[in-house]
Amino acid sequence: MTTRSPWERFQAGEEPRDLRGDVLTSWRRSRISGVDPEHVDVPYVETELDTAFARVAVPIMSGMADLLVGDSSCLALADERGSVIWRWVSEPMLRDTLDDLSVIEGFCFDEEFVGTNGLGTSLETGTLAVVRGDEHYVQRFHDVTCVAAPVRHPVTRRTVGAVNVTCRVADTSSLLTVVVRKLVEEIHAALLEHATLRERRLLDAFLDAQRRSGGPIAVVGDGVLITNAAAGGLGLDRLDLWDEVRSCRTDGTTIGLPDDLTARVELVRAAGTTAGALLTVSGPAATAPAVRRAPAADPWSAATTRAADLAAAGPVLVRGEAGTGKATVLADALGPSTVLDAATHGVDGAAAWTGRLRDAVRDGSPLVLRHVELLDPAAARTVAAVLTGPAARPPLGLTATVPDGGSPGPSVPVLCDALGAATVTLPALRSRPDDVVRFARAVLRDRGGGLAFAPDALAVLRRHRWPGNLAELTRVVADAAADATGPVVTAAALPADVRAAATRRTLTPLERAEAQVIETTLQAHGGNKSTAARELGISRTALYSKIRSYRI
Prior knowledge:
By secondary structure, this protein is α/β, with parallel strands linked by helices.
């Protein structure tokens, strides 16, 4: 009789007693996260490789690599999310193995994505993690051993990354733990030596400003954002702020912030270089935080007003991506309505569905036809004939789900031309990061309980692309609120795929436009990258690179 391994027993639903407790706990977390134990594709995350942490740690890692030449081992450095930012491998065969396992710069080993592994588990637990062979949750990693430990900044106490040593299972040695501990110790000392002046200058600038002002202030630097209570709820994004500040050359520059706020920049210098900046925030929300302002105009409110005006004169079509709130806009514009969904036309049969349409027209109540892009041209002509018949037509709204910048298909123009329908277009949420914050706060407020978002949560929400638009945002915020254990919803309460946006840089307007063109072209070609690349006039390699870079 063959004895099953602890991994096999766990996957069969048992709780192995002969397994280390920390590994079993990690396996449970991995199962809850939905990681596939048979195989997982390690996600690629756009990662900044040249960080202050990397500049300090890489020379130390390289020095250790010189001592390990001849051993079958790999040294890796990761950022605070578990994305590899540097790697060294002692010999070609092990390098090939690790390439196959995606132990390469830019790939993220967060435990929620990859299951139990050295880097991800050490960052999850905040302690040294030793994961040997089949202690990895995912089977494809069973041939290697990983030892990793997190690195905390000696001043801020934030976890800034992790170091990792990997070898084949047969080469596992207790010396791996010694190597990792030594690397962490040396990197910690080097961070203290290199960062003390910069970090202390930033902290001193913050404390001095806090004594002088009761208004919102923040200090931003490379990897640092310090705010007082007044600025903590403004949704300031460290990466966006640092990008703005790095382009400033003189004191007194004014930069724009979300919600019509501005900030005066005072550069903080250390050792002759710019260490960061002190931001003094001003604007309506900053000067009168206790007074609730009327909501700022947004495309959705404007669309509702326009749809109501147009519906008074004739049919109106509201178009936009899935989840952008098309039906909600029409419900607000038309009031209580009869709703027919074209998605059921083929299931119910043309005769039955058209019969319900005629009944709705005779009833005279406002009528909403959803998903009219799903009708074929013949059905669209039949619907148009019913709606333009002798019976008095009720107030009419239609919705069409269309990719941002894409074509609605042949049926929508048939209906709009026959009915003389006006069109209102709703934007994709990813193009409105300020509105993301406003909607998220509104959803959280409607949930009750006095909950508020932490700044790190607001920054993550602003950076996520929201492919599901308002519907996805509403679900994410509602779930985070339901799971909240205190009055503040932090980034940790958001789903892993949303939190991954924290590591993503903000695209420039030109990059956003290019990403939208690529996305629309891919949709038009059914996801076929070869034909999409030909239409775009670029190589497949260039297309793959842009897909990874823009996170399409």
